[in-house]
Amino acid sequence: MNWRALFKPSAKYSILALLVVGIVVGVVGYFATQQTLHATSTDEFCMSCHSNHSLKDEVLASAHGGGRAGVTVQCQDCHLPHGPVDYLIKKIIVSKDLYGFLTIDGFNTQEWLDENRKEQADLALKYFRSNDSANCQHCHTRIYEDQPETMKKMAKRMHANNFKKDADKRKTCVDCHKGVAHVYPKG
Ligand code: HEC
Ligand code: HEC
Ligand code: HEC
Ligand code: HEC
């Protein structure tokens, strides 16, 4: 075969045919990426690095573990955003954890988590504060308006008072609710 033929403009295939091939490759690539992103969003994926940490057991033991309502909330429901662009950006941040995983001495041990819990919790809280606890609000849609009859009086009052404030003075869910899935360190 003549190598130079590779670089010559195609005479054999029409532009249309090339376009179709391009689109097919693009679509396949798109779905392959979606699959990968989906696979990287399961609890198993998170726990592959955090496997010796008590995080999953803590979730199961919490109100988010499915005791009363039978809903087990997944890691990504709370920790990863829902919008596709934000999701990708957060994924890239999570992929930085790969570096930490390889370089932090004793990372995947319970001792490490116990010792660094406060610092890690505050990093996690920073994300919730950055978007007004959007992940929480994604499920808890009736906290501020249209509150359910069954909600405790005290909770209704606290939520209503908070909602009355100017948007920039309002607290966000995790300001008042810490440790809803893990043990938030005291002090
Ligand atoms: C490649 C290994 C790895 C995977 C996979 C992984 N993590 Fe982590 N994670 C780490 C490491 C390492 C740290 C500590 C990072 C640091 O302090 O530098 C960490 C810290 C965290 C923190 C606290 C710090 C912060 O920035 O919020 C949260 C929350 C967290 N991971 C949640 C998750 C969730 C949810 C998943 C699944 C979507 C996940 N992790 C998957 C390695 C991993
Ligand atoms: C995937 C949906 C989902 C997400 C995300 C979620 N929750 Fe929940 N939450 C629930 C369910 C379901 C219950 C259990 C309701 C019940 O037991 O009746 C619950 C219960 C609670 C309770 C009551 C706890 C108790 O002890 O009775 C609080 C407070 C709460 N969630 C706050 C939060 C906060 C804060 C966040 C974000 C960090 C959050 N939730 C994220 C679904 C969710
Ligand atoms: C100003 C503080 C404050 C803010 C902000 C706040 N809460 Fe609450 N919330 C409370 C208090 C206090 C209670 C009642 C005590 C309890 O059950 O923990 C409560 C109770 C709840 C309950 C349980 C209700 C029941 O009847 O058992 C849920 C669920 C809840 N909050 C979710 C949220 C979510 C989601 C957000 C963010 C959209 C939020 N809260 C924002 C203070 C707050
Ligand atoms: C209901 C929401 C929710 C679920 C489900 C959840 N987390 Fe968290 N996570 C939080 C919040 C809120 C914090 C911030 C600290 C706090 O309030 O306890 C946090 C903190 C963390 C931290 C920092 C260390 C710590 O304990 O504070 C890690 C690591 C973490 N989560 C990983 C996970 C993994 C892995 C899963 C799945 C097995 C998971 N989380 C499930 C809400 C959740």
3D structure, described in words:
- Heme 1 binds at residues 46, 49, 97.
- Belongs to the NapC/NirT/NrfH family.
- One of its GO terms (cellular component) is plasma membrane.
- It holds the Pfam family Cytochrom_NNT.
- Helices cover 57% and strands 0% of the residues.
- It is built from nine helices and no strands.
- The protein has helices at 15-39, 43-49, 55-61, 75-79, 84-103, 110-130, 134-139, 153-164, 173-176.
- The radius of gyration is 23 Å and the shape is extended.
- Bound molecules: heme C (4 copies).
- Residues 63-64, 68-69, 71, 73, 77-78, 128, 133, 135-136, 138-140, 173-174, 177, 180 line the site of one heme C (HEC).
- One heme C (HEC) binds next to helix 4, helix 7 and helix 9.
Secondary structure: elements and pairs:
Layout: H1 15-39, H2 43-49, H3 55-61, H4 75-79, H5 84-103, H6 110-130, H7 134-139, H8 153-164, H9 173-176
Bound molecules: heme C (HEC) (4 copies).
What is the count of helical runs?
Answer: 9
**Percent range for β-strand residues:** under 5%
Mean pLDDT, all residues: 86
Q: Helical amount among residues, as a percent range?
A: 55-70%
Count of domain modules? 1
In total, the number of strands is 0
Organism: Shewanella colwelliana
Subcellular location: Cell membrane
Binding site for heme 2: 75, 78-79, 182
Membrane topology: Single-pass membrane protein
Structure summary:
With 187 residues, the chain is an all-alpha fold.
From the structure above, extract its key features:
transmembrane, binds heme C, electron transfer activity, mainly alpha, electron transport, single chain, 57% helix, metal-binding, 9 helices, 187 residues, NapC/NirT_cyt_c_N
